[in-house]
């Protein structure tokens, strides 16, 4: 779920509202019950309340439109993942910094 939050900027795919971690759910664009797979191009971050209301209906049946489209995220160099989990500031010297 952390990677999905990161990819979608912590925003609900339907409302674009920034969600608190406890408000998030993984939403299948094509419901699993209708053959949808759990893969990057079929999942988005959504408010739990919207996910519960939608159930296993299609977007059209539920009257919903995606404002954030599912996509495969760009690959990150390993050192960026490591830095995001860095718990020991004294290690920062050893983790390559990128310009940004």
Would you write up a description of this structure?
The protein has four helices and two strands; from the N terminus they run H-E-E-H-H-H. The longest helix has 7 residues, at 48-54. The relative contact order is 0.18. The protein has a two-stranded antiparallel sheet. Helix content is 24%, strand content 10%. It is elongated, with a radius of gyration of 16 Å. The two termini are 25 Å apart. The chain has 100 residues and is α+β, with helices and mostly antiparallel strands.
Write a short abstract of this structure.
The chain is α+β, with helices and mostly antiparallel strands. The chain has helices spanning 2-7, 48-54, 59-62, 78-84, and strands at residues 24-28, 43-47.
Write the layout of secondary structure elements.
Layout (H helix, E strand, L loop, with lengths): L1 H6 L16 E5 L14 E5 H7 L4 H4 L15 H7 L16
Antiparallel strand pairs: 1-2
């Amino acid at each position: 779920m952390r990677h999905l939050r990161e990819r979608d900027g912590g925003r609900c795919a339907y409302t674009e509202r920034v969600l608190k971690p406890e408000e998030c759910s993984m939403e299948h664009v094509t419901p699993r019950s209708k053959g949808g797979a759990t893969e990057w191009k079929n999942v988005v971050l959504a408010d739990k309340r919207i996910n519960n209301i939608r159930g296993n209906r299609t977007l059209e049946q539920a009257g919903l439109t995606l404002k954030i489209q599912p996509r495969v995220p760009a690959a990150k160099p390993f050192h960026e993942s490591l830095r995001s989990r860095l718990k020991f500031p004294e290690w920062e010297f050893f983790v390559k910094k990128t310009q940004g």
